[in-house]
Amino acid sequence: MSDAVSTDRSDLDALVIGAGFSGLYMLHRLRDSLGLSALVLEAADDVGGTWYWNRYPGARCDSESYFYSFSDRLSTDLLEEWTWSERFATQPEILRYLQTVAERFDLRRDIRFGTTVTSASWDDDAGRWTVGTAGGERITARFLITAVGCLSTTNLPDFPGRDSFQGAWYHTGLWPHEGVDFTGQRVAVIGTGATGVQLIPEVAQEAAHVTVFQRTPNYDIAGGNHPVTEDFDRKIKDDYPRIWARTRETAFGFPYDVAERTALSVPDDERQVIFEEAWAQGGFRLGTTFNDLLLDEDANETAAEFLRNKIRERVHDPEIAEMLAPKDHPFFTKRPPLENGYYETYNRENVTLVDVRRSPIEAITPTGVRTADGEYEVDSIVYATGFDAMTGTLYKLGITGRGGLSLADKWAQGPRTYLGIATHDFPNLFIITGPQSPSVLSNMPVSIEQHVDWIADCLRHLHEQGVERIEPTVEAEDGWVAHHDEVTGMTLLPRADSWWVGANIPGKHRSLYPYVGGVGVYRGICDDVAAKGYEGFALSRAEATAPA
Ligand code: FAD
Ligand code: NAP
């Protein structure tokens, strides 16, 4: 390993792509813990990733702020010093937090901003990756680590006539930094996922009229956002060791305990009280009330009906309430948004809900949105239409492995990975929060840290053993894919047409992209693989073909 950060960018130990939570922590571990020469390439002008790009009104986290952050793995001092102002922090506050991390650990000096990676090819003779950028640079490194995020390539549906629209249009994932003033405007919002649910109440307060185009209603859960009091902040800080330990053990990386009981094992009235109590606490607590909500359809239906009734209580017009109440998929088989006043928005005079499942969008016209039922004239269109998740950004990197095999081709029939972190024929490539790892089915900072720490420990091991190449075996990969599919099949998750299964992108291979076996279980498997000398990986020394 080199002693200092190399200034010769053609001889890096490791190249990291992306400077969000993942890339920042990865750089810190590579450079400051391992002493490797490392460089981060980032398309944006600054750090932040998700929180750099998603600046739409209402954007905030729905993991609670106190655990939507780096843990004691990064710094106990920072945990003590940083105080979140709200239970669910806003985008500007999370961005400020990540900027603070970058400053505190002096990370920016090894990040090249405004640099988009367009190709990455493995040279099997040299045992190195060569990365090309939009600016025409070529940079080589022994290890390539993608930290490009699961939700960083926007999905802009290809509606006929989309480019003919004469007004202004925006995608929430590429929101203008200067903000948008909708005062007095007629605004169309297409999409009612977590993003639309946050944005719509905010825009409705400003615009003359908002027309919401909904294809699938969601089971939105009350967020229960509130300011963080001094007392709460102190209690959390004192409890952090236990909190972080819990996040690493639980199924979803939240420090919440799931009740050890099934939904149908309790009488109806008791179950109702349990749901009400969880509802009153706000956030994803509702998902912790029973341990079979994701496994058993009848159990799931009890929570689904509870949530439908909440919508019916809050939305005055019964017809609109029924449009908003999901009936075509089980609860939590699409990611449930957290909402703060979303349903009440439909009681406003200036908000119209259009059901585009019944009456699909036929075209975007120069003056608005046309469905089978007629045209809605608007001044602006907001596409809250989500992302080509998990693989979209990876494919855009143009990664080619041994023999020129492209990652997109290899995964054409669905991702094939070992532990969601590496893939055969792509030596020395590590994918942070890749498909078939818990990633988006978890509180992500916890999963990000686990991946980064595992990769860092692996690189240390390779160095100590004089190993220059690491690559999963075909057998290990086949085994992981089979395990992933088996676990997936035990749940209700494949039931819905969600982005978790790639259903939002026309032509995308359908499979459950994240791993649903649980954050704690997954961590145990990864630790076990490491403890057994990186079982399932072929490790080879320089020039050697024999395993180390
Ligand atoms: P990102 O933050 O997506 O960063 C990836 C970076 O890679 C970006 O800066 C991007 O510009 C860069 N990049 C991509 N391609 C290239 C390229 N070709 N060349 C150079 N750079 C490139 N998760 C939770 O757990 N809890 C939440 O409450 C939560 N809220 C969310 C809210 C929104 C609006 C969204 C969109 C996502 C949310 N997520 C949440 C998921 C969120 O993406 C992760 O929590 C986390 O921020 C991901 O960090 P990351 O560093 O892995 O990826
Ligand atoms: P999303 O969940 O994929 O929602 C996109 C919305 O656009 C859906 O309502 C979808 O309808 C609709 N849509 C897509 N294509 C369409 C088309 N051709 N015609 C009509 N409607 C169309 O995306 P998102 O809301 O941006 O959220 C993505 C993920 O980011 C979330 O699940 C979450 O993980 C994260 N996120 C978190 C928060 C938070 O609260 N912290 C906020 C925002 C995002 P269908 O459902 O029918 O496909």
Give a verbal description of the structure.
With 548 residues, the protein is of the alpha/beta class. It has two domains: 3-153 and 389-541, FAD/NAD(P)-binding domain; 162-383, no CATH class. It has helices at residues 21-33, 50-53, 76-81, 91-104, 194-206, 230-249, 268-281, 297-314, 318-324, 392-396, 407-410, 444-465, 474-489, 519-531; strands at residues 12-17, 38-41, 111-112, 117-123, 128-133, 138-146, 168-171, 186-190, 209-214, 221-222, 338-339, 351-355, 361-365, 368-371, 374-377, 380-383, 399-400, 429-431, 467-472, 537-541. The strands form five sheets. Strands 1, 2, 3, 4, 5, 6, 17 and 18 form an eight-stranded mixed beta sheet that branches. Strands 7-16-8-9-12 form a five-stranded parallel beta sheet, with helices on one face. Strands 13-14-15 form a three-stranded antiparallel beta sheet, with no helix packed on it. A hairpin with a 2-residue loop joins strand 13 and strand 14 (368-371). Helix 8 runs antiparallel to helix 9. The chain starts with 11 loop residues before the first strand and ends in a 7-residue tail after the last strand. The model is unreliable at 1-8 (pLDDT under 50). The structure holds flavin-adenine dinucleotide and NADP nicotinamide-adenine-dinucleotide phosphate (NAP). Residues 61-62, 151, 157, 190-196, 198, 215-216, 335, 337-338, 356, 361, 384-387, 440, 499, 504 line the site of NADP nicotinamide-adenine-dinucleotide phosphate.
